[in-house]
Every structure is written in C-alpha cells, then in structure tokens.
Design a protein that fits this description.
With 253 residues, the protein is of the alpha/beta class. The protein contains 10 helices and 7 strands. The chain has a single domain, classed as Rossmann fold (3-Layer(aba) Sandwich). 42% of the residues lie in helices and 14% in strands. Helix 3 (81-92) links the parallel strand 4 and strand 5 (98-101). Helix 1 packs across helix 10 (239-251) and helix 5 packs antiparallel against helix 6.
Length: 253
C-alpha cells in the first residue's frame, strides 16, 4: 500500500502520525520548529488526507502499512490514535526513540480502567457521525481543546487544517471509532523497548491525564512530561513547550 508521506527538514529521521479524522498537515505548526533539527516524515494514515483512497485496516494492518514507509533508522511520534499506531509499530519494528502525545493504551473505559472516555460517549459520537459527520467532526475538534488555556487559537488551527487535504472517508471515520473502542494495548506496554517520551496535557478531556501518567509508569524506559494548562493537542496550543521537550529528548544520546 502506498501512503502519502510529506518529507521536509534536515537531520535524523522522525516519522509523525496524526490522530483520528485529520492528516499529516496537522503537524505544520510544530513541524516549523522541528524541521531545523530533523528530517520529518508526515504520514497521512489510510483513509485520511491524501491517503483517502487507501483502505482502512485493523491496528496491526495500519501498523504494517506505515512500517512499509519507514526509513532505515528512525524515531517515531504519534498523537492520539496515531500514538496507538506508533505503539503497535514499536512492538514489532522498534524505533530509535518513541514520542507519544495525548495518547492512551485504551481509549474507552473498562471495569479496571477509568482514565478514559465512557463507552456511551463514544457510541453517541458514532451515531451522530452516521447522520451528520461534518458537525460531528467539528464537535470532536472542540472536545480536543476543551479547558485548554489557548483553546481558541488551537481550535482555529484544527478547524483550518481539517479539510485542507480533502474530506476524510466517512466509512473510515466510523471504522476508526470502532478501532478506538476495541483497542486495549495495556498488556503490551511492558514490551516496548525504545526510550519513550510521553507528553500529555493536564487538562485533556478526550484522553484523561491519568492515561498518560499510566504510560509513563508502565513503559520501562519512559520519560513523562505533563504539559500544564494544555488539553488534547498540546503540540498546537503549547507548541514551543512540546517542540523543546521533543528536541531535547530526541537529540540526547
């Protein structure tokens, strides 16, 4: 499968995976900071952006699709759903280093897992997606910046970016929600060997901060950084903080 990958910058290779409903262009503000230090590979996941016509698969299938486009030696960053794909890749094709932003091993609450979205909230999103997916996407964007100290600017950037590479495939959006509802990576986290930076906003209403703290505790070589006053997209609302943390971590020996 051929996915769209935008490449820019100079330096060690860094592959970046976006979240549900968006595309690699969402990284643009952060990429401006990182491109001076790294060669960035901004992937459009299947069914999204310029990869819109590529078939959506299960998490392992998506991980294999992305792995086919990886440089020989690389670091890997993923946000939200992209973070789950990144974690799956890290289990089978270990990167030099791994960065997880606003992600979670398990998106929906379980009996033994409460740092997550309630199942009925996700089900409501899925139902609304089937009837008015544009409005549902806009609601999802608003939820991503809820409680952020720079919510207005972050939402403006997300809204501007949303359809820049065309509309995501409606079927893929629904299948993506199904994937989020079904995935539970907690049993695998102790097997991630790569040094990992976990970045999580302390006001995240979509993937609660407890999920990031849990990752920081259960990935053996993890460094956890909590971004103060940030919600689900700290790489937009607190770009300099995220860029500085990533640069220091990725360039450290």
């Amino acid at each position: 499968m051929s996915l769209h990958v935008e490449t820019l910058g100079n330096g060690p290779d860094l592959v970046m995976l976006h979240g549900w409903g968006l595309h690699g262009g969402v990284w643009a503000p952060l990429a401006e900071k990182l491109a001076a230090h790294f060669t960035l590979h901004l992937v459009d996941l299947p069914g999204h952006g310029h990869s819109r016509d590529q078939a959506w698969r299960d998490l392992d299938g998506i991980a294999r699709d992305v792995a086919a486009h990886l440089p020989r030696e690389y670091s890997l960053a993923g946000w939200s759903l992209g973070g789950q794909v990144a974690m799956r890749i890290a289990l089978h094709a270990p990167p030099r280093k791994l960065v997880l932003i606003g992600t979670t091993p398990c998106f929906v609450q379980r009996a033994d897992w409460h740092a997550a979205m309630r199942p009925e909230v996700l089900a409501d999103f899925a139902q609304k997606l089937a009837t008015n997916y544009r409005a549902t996407l806009n609601s999802f964007l608003a939820l991503q910046v809820l409680h952020d100290s720079a919510a207005r600017a972050a939402l403006r950037e997300l809204t501007r970016t949303l359809f820049l590479r065309g509309e995501p495939h409606p079927d893929v959006l629904g299948e993506g929600l199904d994937l989020l509802g079904d995935t539970d990576l907690r049993p695998d986290m102790t097997r991630i060997a790569a040094p990992t930076l976990v970045l999580h906003g302390d006001r995240d209403a979509l993937t609660p901060v407890g999920a990031g703290r849990w990752l920081g505790q259960h990935i053996e070589r993890a460094k956890y950084v909590e971004v103060e006053d940030a919600a689900h997209a700290p790489f937009l609302s607190h770009r300099d903080t995220v860029a500085d943390a990533m640069t220091r971590f990725l360039k450290a020996t």
